[in-house]
Design a protein that fits this description.
The chain has about 400 residues and is α+β, with helices and mostly antiparallel strands. The chain folds into two domains: about 190 residues, Roll (Diaminopimelate Epimerase, Chain A, domain 1), CATH 3.10.310.10; about 160 residues, Roll (Diaminopimelate Epimerase, Chain A, domain 1), CATH 3.10.310.10. Helix content is about 15%, strand content about 35%. The chain has an 18-stranded mixed β-sheet that branches.
Amino acid sequence: MPVDAGGLAHRRGSQTAIPCLFMRGGTSRGPFFDERTLPADVATRDAVLLAALGSPDERQIDGIGGAHPLTSKVGLVGPGTRPGVDVEWTFGQVQPGRTGVDVTSNCGNMLAAVLPFAVETGLVVPAADRTTARVLTRNTGMVAEIAIRTPAGPDGTRHVDYAGEARIDGVPGSAAPIEIGFLDTAGSVAGSLLPTGNERDTVEVPEVGSVDVTLIDNGQPLVIVEAGRLGATGYEEPAEIDGDDVLKAKVEALRLVCGHAMGLGDVTDQNYPKMTLVAPPRHGGDVSTRSLIPRVAHRSIGVLAAVTAATACVLEGSVAHRVATVGAEPTVSVEHPAGEFSVTLGLDPADPQRVVRSGLLRTARLLMSGEVLVPASLWNPLAKERSA
C-alpha cells in the first residue's frame, strides 16, 4: 500500500504536521515531500523547510538536518506535467548556519530517491518487476531516466525493493541497484558544457597568481584545478581540507574569479560552482579527486560532480585530462576519499569529445515515514480556510 506522504498538512496543537518520507539517496539524505502538501507561497515554503531541518543553527539541533551540507537537503516531488516526463521534482539545498533554500543546482544523489518516493506514495504505480520513469529536475531542466526494482509481494502488490547486491563507496553495506541515465546534461546551469569555449583557461587570482583551470558543466558547474597548484596533494582526507584555512581561502578566491569567468556572476552566496582538485590516480582508477561543495570538503563526490569530472577527463587539453589515465573504454573511474565512482559516458560517434549520455549506478533507502512538525506560527494550513 502507498505510504500516506501525500496527505494534508494539519494542526497538532501549536505546531503544523506535514507528511514526509525521510530517505537516503546515494550518499546524501533528507526529507522528501509531496510538493502539494507544502505552502504554495515560496517564501512561506522555504521558512517551513528551514524550520524542518533546523537551520540556520549550525548544529540544526531543533530540526532533522544532519549539520552538514550532505545531510541538509530536501526533495519536493510531484506528478509530471510535461510530455515525456513521469515525475518532476525540485532539489533544495539547506546550508547549516545559513538562511535560504537554494533551488538553483542539481543533486544526483538525492535524485536516486525520487522514483522510490514516487512509488512509495502512489505517484507512480509499478506494473512489472522493473519500473522505469523519466524524472525532470526543475532546478535546471535536467531529465534523467531512472530504473528501480519493484517486485510483487505475497498479496500481489508491487513494492520498491531496497535489498540487493549493489555497493557504492561512501555507504555501508549493499542495496538494490538504481540505474540512472542522464540525458544531454551539458550546460545545466552555466549554459554550455564549456562556458568559456575552452578546455583550459588561465585565470589570475591575487591570492594564488596565474592558475590553469577547466571550467565545465555537464550537470554540475565545476572548477577543476590541479591540487598541486594550490599547495595540496589531491589525496588529503576531508578533515584535513576542512582544517586547512589557507587552502580553503585559496579555493574560495579561485571560485569567485571563476564564477565570473563562467558567466555566473557573483557566486559569493551561491552553492555553485563546486570546486574539484585533481591529481593522478593512486588506487587503480583514472583520476583522483577532492571535491568542495563549495566550502566544505565532500566525504566522497557528488553524482553530477563525478559525471562532470569524468567528462573533463576525456576532453583533450583539459586540466583533468592532463593528470588522468583514461583509455579507450567509455567508463571513467573517479577516485574520491571514500573509494571510487564509475561513470559510463555515451559519446557522439561524430564527435568523440561530445557526451550525449551519462550512466551510473546509485542506491537509496526509505529510512522513516511520518510527519515533520514546524511551529504553526510559520504556517497554519487552516488559517486560509477559516478566513474564507
